[in-house]
């Protein structure tokens, strides 16, 4: 719901994100999913949020888009309480890319420009390039005019995810939230996409992911356990000490070695 007296969004949002003792509980549940989460992400920072299944990563993404109920005074964008913003204003400032981005039965170009229907082909092409989709498009007989079936059925999983990412990149939102949005691309491609986005935009990026190889390239990593922040720091710091991040990293490396042998 929109607040009765919504706050006014400043013209120049910097993209600072802060959680102050954030608690989130789903309707019908008898316990919180996020249990006192506190952190600050500086404007322009690339931060990964990692942790085991069920730790609250996706709930955090949903809270940022206010797709779940967020208490007042606990989540802020540039110091403004998210609950005091109109949903339309909030979602112009935060581009959220879910793991399964919904695609429409239309051309690839129209799917990319969904958030800004008036965008020209130069911006559509630039967004596709940032999302590492342009080479795929060049391989399609109809290029950007390729018809995308309902839910992207004519595309591979990786192409669907990169199309949803390109759609978000075409918008000018100062905060980009990736909720496992690169899960269907390999770690090298994920790292290339993040590097490309960093070079070409100054936006704040929150990458919620289970891909620790991609998270290792981020400015900082937040490690969640049971809805709480258990560790934070750069990859090299976190693997140098015994803790949940190091355990996750060693498990991922072991799985990759097994895949290589297979």
Mind sketching the topology for me?
Layout: E1 17-24, E2 34-41, E3 46-50, H1 57-64, E4 75-77, E5 80-81, H2 87-93, E6 94-97, E7 106-107, H3 108-112, H4 121-130, H5 134-139, E8 147-148, H6 157-170, E9 175-179, H7 187-200, E10 204-208, H8 212-215, E11 220-225, E12 228-233, H9 235-239, H10 244-261
Parallel strand pairs: 3-10, 3-11, 6-9, 9-10
Antiparallel strand pairs: 1-2, 1-4, 4-5, 7-8, 11-12
Tally of alpha and pi helices: 10
Shape: globular
Distance between the termini: 51 Å
Helix-strand pattern, N to C? Answer: EEEHEEHEEHHHEHEHEHEEHH
Low-confidence stretches: none
Strand order of the largest sheet: 6-9-10-3-11-12
Briefly note the structural class of the backbone.
Answer: alpha/beta
- Main sheet specs: 6 strands, mixed
Helix content bin = 25-40%
Please report the total strand number as a whole number: 12
Mean pLDDT: 89
How much of the sequence lies in strands comes to 15-25%
Give Rg in angstroms: 19 Å
Explain how this protein is built.
The structure is a single chain. This protein has 262 residues and is of the alpha/beta class. Helix content is 35%, strand content 21%. It is built from ten helices and twelve strands. The protein has helices spanning 57-64, 87-93, 108-112, 121-130, 134-139, 157-170, 187-200, 212-215, 235-239, 244-261; strands at 17-24, 34-41, 46-50, 75-77, 80-81, 94-97, 106-107, 147-148, 175-179, 204-208, 220-225, 228-233. The chain has a six-stranded mixed β-sheet with strand order 6-9-10-3-11-12, sandwiched between helices. A four-stranded antiparallel β-sheet has the order 2-1-4-5, covered by helices on one side. It has a two-stranded antiparallel ribbon with strand order 7-8. Helix 7 (187-200) links the parallel strand 9 and strand 10 (204-208). Helix 4 packs across helix 6 (157-170). The longest helix has 18 residues, at 244-261. The protein is globular.
């Amino acid at each position: 719901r929109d607040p009765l007296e919504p706050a006014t969004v400043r013209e120049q949002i910097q993209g600072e994100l802060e959680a102050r003792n954030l608690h989130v509980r789903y309707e019908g549940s008898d316990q919180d999913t996020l249990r006192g989460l506190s952190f600050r992400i500086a404007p322009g920072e690339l931060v990964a949020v990692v942790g085991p299944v069920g730790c609250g990563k996706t709930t955090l993404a949903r809270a940022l888009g206010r797709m779940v109920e967020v208490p007042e005074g606990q989540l802020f964008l540039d110091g403004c309480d998210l609950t005091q913003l109109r949903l339309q204003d909030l979602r112009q400032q935060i581009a959220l890319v879910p793991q399964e981005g919904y695609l429409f039965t239309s051309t690839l170009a129209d799917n990319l420009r969904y958030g800004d229907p008036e965008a020209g082909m130069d911006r559509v092409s630039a967004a596709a390039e940032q999302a590492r989709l342009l080479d795929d498009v060049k391989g399609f007989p109809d290029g950007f005019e390729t018809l995308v079936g309902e839910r992207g059925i004519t595309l591979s999983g990786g192409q669907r995810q990169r199309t949803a990412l390109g759609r978000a990149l075409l918008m000018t939102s100062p905060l980009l939230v990736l909720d496992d949005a690169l899960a269907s691309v390999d770690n090298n491609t994920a790292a290339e996409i993040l590097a490309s986005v960093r070079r070409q935009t100054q936006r704040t990026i929150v990458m919620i992911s289970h891909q620790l190889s991609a998270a290792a390239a981020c400015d900082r990593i937040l490690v969640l356990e049971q809805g709480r922040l258990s560790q934070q720091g750069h990859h090299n710091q976190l693997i140098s000490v015994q803790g949940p991040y190091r355990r996750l990293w060693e498990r991922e490396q072991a799985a990759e070695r097994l895949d290589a042998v297979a």
